[in-house]
Amino acid sequence: MTAHLKSCRRKQAAAERPEQGSRKTPAFHLVVEGRYLPEYWMHLAVSAKATLDTLDRFLRDTWLECCGHMSEFEIDGTRYSVEPMDRDDKTMDVKLTDVLAPGMKFDHVYDFGSTTHLRLKVVSEDQSDLAGKKVRILARNEPPVIPCERCGQPAVQVCTQCIYSGKGWLCEKCAAKHECGDEMFLPVVNSPRVGVCGYTG
């Protein structure tokens, strides 16, 4: 997908008229993926003038937010937190252009109890039409098909009790017969936080 998007940008740039370039702004092309579930990924264009807080809010809104947990980025050995707890930590009120550069890899953590880890990479920095937004999704994974553990049909529910033993993925029909009860279910959603805490997508 990285190669495809680069090729698309080159073709688009070659086809643009000079007046179209005025809508573009400096932006980073980021790849985000689940650190332990890399089948969940997104390619993003993010304004270079946006803050880490803006990126954090986007990740929460798109993939993570369930109960207002804490989060942080770690970039080049420095932690940038929603609410810094350590005197060496910094706030997320810092512009991306001040802390990122092409080729860099960094991490995002949401919820320090039932933690979801994300890996991010800066693919490039160039001009991008963000359509009036600070963050724009360029591409995203298709939802992985997770089979029901009983019948093999696509799972639509996951049991939050059984998931820790690698089980509990159920279709609607088999979920009705599951011994843990429907109060333990969360929906199967397209996010690396699927089945964690109270996340419903």
What proportion strand?
25-35%
Which stretches of 5+ consecutive residues score pLDDT under 50?
Answer: none
Q: What's the CATH superfamily of the largest domain, by name?
A: MM3350-like
- Which whole number gives the mean pLDDT? 92
- Total domains, how many? 2
> If helices are DSSP runs of H or I spanning 4 or more residues, what is the number of helices?
4
Based on the coordinates given, report the CATH architecture of the largest domain: Roll
Q: Would you tell me the structural class of the helices and strands?
A: alpha+beta
How would you characterize the largest beta sheet? 8 strands, mixed
Helix amount, in percent? 10-25%
Q: In one word, what is the shape?
A: globular
Number of strands: 11
Give your account of this protein's structure.
With 201 residues, this protein is an alpha+beta fold. The chain has two domains: 2-140, Structural Genomics Hypothetical 15.5 Kd Protein In mrcA-pckA Intergenic Region, Chain A; 145-201, no CATH class. It contains four helices and eleven strands, in the order H-E-E-H-E-E-E-H-E-E-E-E-E-H-E. It has an eight-stranded mixed beta sheet, with helices on one face. A hairpin with a 5-residue loop joins strand 6 (105-110) and strand 7. It is globular and about 60 Å long. The model has no long low-confidence stretch (mean pLDDT 92).
